[in-house]
Each structure stands twice: as C-alpha cells, then as structure tokens.
Design goal:
The complex is a heterodimer of chains A (593) and B (382). By secondary structure, chain A is an alpha/beta fold. Among the domains of chain A are: 11-227, Rossmann fold (3-Layer(aba) Sandwich), CATH 3.40.50.300; 234-313, Alpha-Beta Plaits, CATH 3.30.70. Helix content of chain A is 34%, strand content 25%. The longest helix of chain B has 31 residues, at 184-214. In chain B, α7 (184-214) runs antiparallel to α11 (294-311), α10 runs parallel beside α14 and α13 packs antiparallel against α14 (352-376). Chain B folds into 2 domains: 3-53 and 183-376, no CATH class; 60-161, abc type-2 transporter like domain (abc type-2 transporter like fold, 3-Layer(aba) Sandwich). Helix content of chain B is 68%, strand content 6%. The chains are: A alpha/beta (593), B mainly alpha (382).
C-alpha cells in the first residue's frame, strides 16, 4: 500500500494488541491490528464509540504501551523512544488540550516553545496558521471564551506549530456543529495539499468518511476494512434502493422491509426508506406490504459499513412489538378514533437572560405521534427551549402547552407526561440496571405489583435481563442507552424528549434505537429530538432549524432541502440545507462570531 | 554527545521549562481560585487565629453567690472584678447561679458559703466552692487555675496588709519563658504558617495538576518533546514562588499586625521555609501522580497533608500530651518538624540544637519524596 522504502511520514502497526483491566475482567480494546498509512493523505479512522479509536491514537502518540505488537512512526518505535516520535508528530486529544486561561497567542507560544520552534521563525509560521484557521482577529481572546468550533481550530493550530509531517487528531469534530465541521475539513484538506502532511483523523460520524482519502474501519477493536471511500462504495454499487410507499407510513413499512430476505440494512431517509441488499438481487417485496416503489440509489460509504458490520455481528432483525411496554397507548389507539390533537403547542415563546434574548418569539406545534426535530448549532437556543418545555425554566413570555397542560401554570402535571433521555444517559452508574429501574419508576410514583410488572416488561423488551444485576456504569454503551430509554419510558409518557440520543453510538444500535422510537410514534407517542446530527434529523417527520433563538425554517426534511435547492446545489442533503440556511442567516446578521 | 550538542540540548530544555513556568504564572494570575487559596485563605486564617481563636481566658463571665455578705467576701469579689481574667456577675442564690451555668451565661460559679467570713477572720483561710462547666475542658481548667491564682494572691495580700506573717511557708514564683505575656496568639501564629504552606504546596499543586488531566491539557503536553522532569520543574518553580509569597505575607502580618516577636533571623526563617515548602510541593506532586481528577486530589491532599498539619503538628495540640501511638505518628508528618522550627525561630531565636536536627528531618523527607516521584512518574496515560 505504501512505499516500504520511504519511511518518511509513514505509520505502520504490526499485530497490535492492547487490553485494559476492568471490574469485569480484561477488556480487549485493540485486537491484533495491522495496518500502514500512506504519506501525504488523510486517513479516517472510523468506528463507533468504544471501538478502540482513542486507544489506537494514544498508542501511536506513545502515551500507552501495547501489550504486544509493534508500531513504527517514520521508522521509530514510539513505545521505545517516545520523545523522538513526539517531536515529529502533532497530536490533538479529544478535549483539544488548550489552556482556557491563556489567550490564543499564548497557547500558540507555549506549544511553539515546547516544540523548540526558534523565536525568529515563529511569526512566519503563525501568520499562515492563524489565517488558515480564521483565528487572526482573535489572537488576544482567551481560549476559554472561544466557541467550540474555534477551540477546535486553535487545537489544530497548536498541534501544527512545529510543522509536523504527521498529524493525529482524535475525534476533532465531536460536539461541533455542521458549519464548523465543514470548515474544519476544509482546513485539513488544505493542509494536506499544501504541505504534504499525513493526517490520521478518528471520527464516529460515517458521513465524514467520504471526506478522507483512505479509510480504516475499526469495530470492537478489530479492523473491518481498509481502502479508499471509492472502493468501499463500489462494493455496494447496485445494491442500494430508495423505497417509496405512497399512502403508507414509512415508520410501519421500514421494519417490514428490514426483515425481508437478503436485506442488509434499512434506514429512513426523509420521505423514502433506504434499502441495502447483500447481493445484486433486488428485494422481493411480498404482496402484503402494499405498493412499494423501488428506485436505484447511488452507493454510499455507510451502506458498505453496515454490510461489513452485519457480516461480523450476524444478528437477525426482529419485529418490534411495544404492546407490553405501552399497554395503555395501544389500547387507546384501538378504541378511540385519532383526533388531530397537538402534543405540544409553543406560541411566541420568549426567554431573556438579562439583556440577552436566548429564545426569540418561537412558534411551533408538535402533533400527536409525530417525531419532531429541533436543530441548531451550539447556542441556538435548543437547550433553553427544551428546559422551558420541561417546566424547568420560566419563560419570559409566550404560550406553552404540553400534553394539554399549560406548563406555566401546572409544570408538575405536564412533566408527568414527559419522558426524558439526556445526551450522556444520566443514570446512576453505581446502581445496577434493576436498581435504576426501581428508582426511576418510584420517582414517577409506581409501586407494588404494577411496578414489578412494568420493570419486568422493560427488562424483557430491552433485552436487559442478562444485565439485571450489573452496575450501569460498566454496561456496554449500547445497553446503557437501552437502559436510559427504558427508564425514560417506565411511566408510559405520551411525550418523549431526546437530547442527541444516538450521537457516536454504534450504527447498529442506532438503528435498533430508532426502530423502537418509530414503534412508539406509531402508537401515538410524540417525540421531540434536539440535535445537530443530520443522521438523527433524517428520522424526523418535521423539524425546525434554529439560530440565535429564532426559527430559520420549519417543515419536513424534503421541504427543508427544497428551500436551499439552487442550480449550484441541485441535490442538497439535509446537512447542505442546514449549512446554507445558517450561513445565509449569519450573513444577514453581519457577523459570524 | 559532544559539548556543543549537549549545550543545545540544555538550552532547549531550559526554553521548555521557561515556557511552562510562564504559562503556569499566567494561569495563577488569571485564575481567581489559585490566588484565593494562595493569598486570601492565609489572610483569612491568620485573621481568625489572630483575633478570633484564643486559648487565653480573659473577662470570663463567672457567677458569684454570697450566702452572707461580709467585708471579707466583698473584698475578694472586688479583687476578682479588678482582674482582667474575670467579669463576676452576682446571683442571689446558688440555684439561680446553676441555672445561669446551664444556660451557658457563665463559665463557672464561685460560691462563698455562710461560714466564709468567720473562717477568714479566725483561721486566715476559708473554703471557697468553685463549680466550672467541664464541657469545654480547656476553659474549665483555665477558670479553675485563674480562680485559684486570684484566691491565693488575695489571701497573700490580705495577710500582708494585716501585717501577719504569710500562712504559706514557701511562695510559688512563676516565670514564663519565651512567651512572657503568655499570649496564645504568639504561639499559634508561627504554627499556622506551616499549615498555610502545606495548603499551597500540597493542596493547590495537586489540584492544578489534576485540572490539567481533567481538561486534557496534560495529554497534549505529553505529546510534545517535553520530559516528565521538565513538567515537574515547571510546576515546582511557580508554586514555590507562590508559597514563599504566602509565607512572606504571613510573616509580615504576624510581625506587624499581631505583633508576634520574631527573635530568630529572617535568613533562618527563609531557609527552613524553603526546605519545608519543597517537602510540601513534593507531597502535592506525588498526589497528582495518582489522582487524576480534582475531587480525588483535593480529598487526598486534605486527608494526608492538611489535616495532619493542622492536628498532629503540634500547632494547636501539644504533641507531648498525645498518647504514645499518636506521638509516633507525628514523626512522619513533616509539618511537625517545621512547627517546632517556626516556634523556635519566632519565640526563642535561632537555636542550632532545635533548628539543625529538624531541618535535617525535613531534608530527608524532601529527598525521599522526590526520589519516589521520579520513580513513579511516567509520561504515559495509564
């Protein structure tokens, strides 16, 4: 793959294994990994949270020692001679490694001194770095006062002060909005094309894979694939379809398609279902499913990724029935004819913090059984809106009705109808799965045999029975998410709030999760999702895009994409739409940061 | 390695250390919580111990009950009123006085019985009843002692005035050395300096390093050519300076605000303080190799450095009156050696017999701690 005779700018790993002790025995983070990286390219290390990405990055940087196997960076072994390796690589850890009390300039100076950059050369190096990252106007600003995206850029600038031939970036785009994410990738591309550096970038976002020259898929500590995005796409060429089901709810159709023979992956994509097959044979849709129109879809990396994962996990998709989880609602649905009734009414909502208006005259309605998205960059007012909906924060003005209750008058009653799953799965990590369920069900006033029955149903439904007595802190990530969801649903709320529910989660687990959410929506549970991940936004029936407290656009994903369709961008993705709406908005506002 | 490349190596190393020290100084100046621990906390502690906490008794409220008023009893009470230790409050009978004691209106009761006057007149002596509130053992003993003292003095004066020979065959003449005013403040404040330097050296240092782990900056530092020794020196220098500033502030406040005498030399004070501060910093750096978040670092630093320095160093509680087992423990607490040195330098002067052995002990601690740190610190994440 790489020219073996030129060690310059080259990374090789040979049969690398790394384990960590944990309360449940040794955990294998990396299992017999072998790869080599091309010089002068961007290689993406792609895998969900917990795949072993950070461990691999730290091994390469000489911060960890492998149990076995060998690493060579430009011919040097970082385990034996970390100082020489560390002088020739740039490394940005997940938390950026910036000193928040120091200004942009002072952070740069510090890293330049530590890397031994001579004083007289610094100015020449800083100017292009600051220009490239757009930080020139902010040299005197403290790093702690920069936005998330700008911190990231400063982190990169700091790891580049000594012009390293190799740059290792550990999840640089985590927690950053799509606009900053794009800018960051532009910077990386420019860097490689101008200086010929070798970049190794880890990410859990599959859509970023297409921006790399080379891809290394890491999954459960093993390498599942290695190649160019193009090669991955070619693997699944001709196997992808967009299925339309006129007159039917896609939430009902999608699970049925997913269990058809030969189907590797199904996922909601706006007004269609994407179906990926394991061979060139098209799916055979049985009569019972009604009218399904299949259109060939251009292949993408995620299809190949899912195909590869399905090969190693080999789990048969199951049909989900939530009757046991939601006996109340499924009966309601059968008996009472559906009324067009709103689950949430927000009208002219305003919230001020001092002179700062965090939410400005916001109006939207969430229908019963609808999955509704609240999208926006950091600081758009999503969290403030959400807190007001949950009755945790008093609005400064406007109307707020949740499940028929005025939140401003009866917050507690409104809350009884809300289930909430926080971003980081706010569970008590020292309590076992069972104890968490007991606690949350008691908090919602369940007791006695009803409580026992509900908990048992949850354990069965979410397949948590084997983990019943395991502390939730040491659960595998996917199961932790299931537990968080089961705690949020234990009181059968009619409205579910999800805060970035599946960011970084294994795509397999993400699909399972959304199957459950879809099943809930079918029985009439309304779901409000706050996120800035487009993958999650695609699952929404309708969504609003917010910026600086105001509403920029509202509609279903197709309508939003339609808004930004231009001759230059005939087929905008939801992310394209989001980015262009936001940049239009900041242009009219006159200043971006 | 030839001499020019080794010189280049050292100048690169020096540059890195300089950059780290500069960075740390900026952080100290900009972070209000560091400055609060380093300068505000000593200030507050000194004020509390200088003004608030006192182990001396003065104007202790005391109930006085006279079963029958006689010139003799009135005379004794007048002498109580004149002493600066007591403020006597008359009560009609012993029951009222006991009530006052229970309400903690008074710290003790002086009960002059029916036969007091007669006893004094006929035998030049009489029993007096003293009841003290034993809840606060320290004050109780003080009240008892001072009352006894006042009583003996009064008897003595009375005997002299009556031109009668003293009933006491020998007289007790008490001279209090080193702290002739018997002010507990003079004794407490030097010890407090040891506590303050422990705070800055161990607690603050452990906290700021744990913060670097939490914020991911340590990871970023590790992936530069900086060595672990340079990182340690980069932490040591600024916090040493900060600790010595806290020390200087404390000494100035003790000398000029609280008028604690400084009988030893400033040089001795500075040298021994640097030695102790080095030990305290060693403890802080050692803690930070194990504790990677601020909560754990703070807990360890308080339990293993601050509390021992407060309780077991002899700063408040006399080591010689502790049980032998606890006394043995105080030998492994560096602050106990420094408190001895400080009390000597402030109250007695530079006494080599005290200063040298205690300084040697501190130096041994410092060497041991830094050897341990170098052994356990590695530039790795694990």
């Amino acid at each position: 793959m790489a020219e073996p005779d030129s060690p310059e700018g080259l990374i090789t790993a040979n049969r690398l294994t790394k384990t960590f002790p944990s309360p449940r025995g040794l955990v294998t983070a990396l299992d017999d990994i072998t790869f080599s990286l091309k010089k002068g390219s961007i290689t993406g290390l792609i895998g969900p949270d917990g795949a072993g990405k950070t461990t691999l990055m730290r091994l390469l940087a000489g911060l960890l020692l492998p149990d076995s196997g060998e690493i060579k960076i430009m011919g040097i072994n970082p385990s034996k001679d970390p100082l020489s390796v560390q002088g020739s690589i740039g490394y940005m850890p997940q938390k950026f490694g910036l000193y928040e009390d120091l200004s942009v300039q002072e952070n740069l100076d510090l890293y330049a001194s530590l890397q031994g950059v001579p004083q007289d050369r610094r100015e020449d190096l800083y100017v292009p770095l600051l220009a490239m990252t757009g930080l020139s106007p902010f040299q005197k600003r403290l790093a702690g006062q920069l936005s998330g995206g700008m911190k990231q850029k400063l982190g990169i600038a700091c790891s580049l002060v000594h012009q390293p031939p190799i740059l290792l970036l550990d999840e640089p785009t985590v927690g950053v909005d799509p606009v900053s994410r794009r800018e960051l990738w532009e910077i990386l591309k420019k860097l490689v094309s101008e200086s010929g550096s070798t970049l190794f970038v880890s990410t859990s976002y599959l859509d970023e894979a297409e921006r790399c020259n080379e891809i290394l898929i890491l999954y459960n500590g093993k390498i599942l694939g290695n190649g160019t995005p193009e090669a991955f796409r070619m693997e699944v060429a001709g196997r992808g379809y967009r299925a339309e089901a006129p007159g039917q709810s896609l939430r009902v159709v999608e699970p049925k398609l997913s269990v058809l023979p030969g189907v590797v992956d199904t996922v909601l994509e706006g007004s269609t279902v994407r179906v990926v097959m394991d061979s060139d044979m098209p799916p055979s849709v049985p009569q019972g499913l009604g009218k399904i129109l299949l259109h060939p879809a251009p292949p993408r990396f995620e299809d190949a990724f899912m195909s590869r994962i399905k090969k190693v996990t080999r789990e048969n998709p199951k049909t989900i029935s939530i009757d046991r989880l939601y006996p109340k609602h499924s009966q309601e649905q059968k008996n009472i004819p559906e009324k067009p009734e709103n689950a949430i009414d927000v009208e002219n909502l305003v919230r001020d913090f001092g002179t700062f208006r965090a939410v400005d005259n916001l109006t939207f309605h969430v229908r019963k059984g609808e999955v509704f998205g609240l999208l926006g960059a950091n600081g758009a007012g999503k969290t403030t809106t959400f807190r007001m909906l949950a009755g945790l924060l008093e609005p400064s003005g406007g109307k707020l009705i949740v499940a028929g209750k005025d939140v401003r008058k009866a917050a507690a009653q409104a809350r009884q109808n809300i289930g909430y799953m926080a971003q980081k799965f706010s569970l008590y990590s020292q309590l076992t799965v069972f104890q968490n369920l007991i606690f949350f069900s008691s908090a919602y006033g369940l007791s006695g045999s009803l409580q026992k029955e509900k908990i048992q149903n949850s354990l069965t439904f979410f397949e948590l029975e084997p983990y019943r007595n395991v502390s939730s802190g040491i659960l595998p990530l996917g199961f932790r998410q299931r537990l968080a969801l089961s705690c949020a649903l234990i009181h059968e709320p009619s409205i579910l709030f999800l805060d970035e529910p599946t960011s970084g989660v294994d795509p397999n687990a993400r699909r399972e999760f959304w199957h459950i959410i879809n099943a809930l929506a079918i029985v009439g549970v309304s779901v409000l999702v706050t996120t800035h991940f487009m993958e999650e936004a695609e699952y929404c029936d309708r969504l609003v895009i917010m910026a600086q407290g105001t509403l920029l656009a509202m509609g279903n994903p197709e309508e939003i994409k339609e808004k930004t369709r231009t001759p230059q961008m005939p087929e905008p993705s939801l992310e394209d739409a989001f980015v262009s709406l936001l940049s239009d908005f900041s242009r009219t506002q006159g200043d971006h940061q | 390695m030839n001499s020019s490349s080794s010189r280049a190596f050292f100048s690169a190393r020096l540059n890195r250390i300089r950059a780290l020290v500069y960075k740390e100084s900026l952080q100290i100046v900009r972070d209000p919580s560091s400055l609060a621990i380093a300068l505000v906390l000593p200030f507050v502690l000194l004020l509390i111990f200088g003004y608030g906490v006192s182990l001396d008794a003065s104007h202790v409220p005391i109930a006085v009950v006279q079963d029958s008023r006689t010139p003799a009893s009135e005379g004794f009470i007048a002498s109580l009123r004149n002493s600066r230790w007591f403020s006597p409050k008359p009560y009609a009978n012993i029951h009222d006085a006991i009530g006052a004691l229970k309400r903690q209106d008074v710290e003790g009761i002086l009960w002059l019985r029916e036969n007091f006057g007669r006893g004094i007149e006929s035998f030049h002596n009489a029993p007096i009843h003293v009841i003290v509130d034993g809840v606060d053992d320290n004050t109780a003993r003080l009240v008892e002692g001072y009352l006894n003292n006042t009583w003996q003095t009064w008897l003595h004066l009375r005997a002299q005035r009556g031109r009668l020979s003293s009933p006491l065959p020998a007289e007790l003449q008490v001279r209090i050395w080193f702290n002739p005013d018997n002010r507990s403040r003079d004794f407490l404040i030097p010890g407090l300096i040891a506590v303050i330097m422990t705070l800055i050296g161990a607690l603050l240092t452990a906290l700021v390093i744990a913060r670097e782990w939490e914020r991911g900056t340590m990871e970023a530092l590790f992936v530069t050519p900086v060595s672990i020794g340079e990182i340690l020196v980069g932490k040591f220098i600024p916090y040493f300076i900060l600790g010595m500033s806290g020390m200087a502030l404390s000494v100035l406040m003790s000398r000029f605000l609280f008028e604690v005498p400084l009988r030893g030399s400033v040089i001795t004070l500075a040298l021994t303080s640097s030695l102790f501060l080095t030990t305290a910093l060693g403890m802080g750096l050692l803690i930070s190799t194990a504790a990677k978040n601020q909560f754990v670092a703070g807990q360890i630093a308080i339990v293993f450095t601050f509390l021992p320095a407060f309780i077991l160093s002899g700063f408040i509680f006399d080591i010689h009156s502790m049980p032998p087992f606890i006394q043995a423990i105080t030998h492994i607490i560096p602050a106990s050696y420094f408190v001895t040195i400080l009390q000597s330098v402030f109250l007695a002067g530079d006494i080599p017999k005290v200063i040298i052995p205690n300084s040697v002990a501190l130096a041994l601690f410092a060497v041991f701690l830094f050897a341990l740190i170098l052994r356990v610190s590695r530039k790795r994440i694990e």
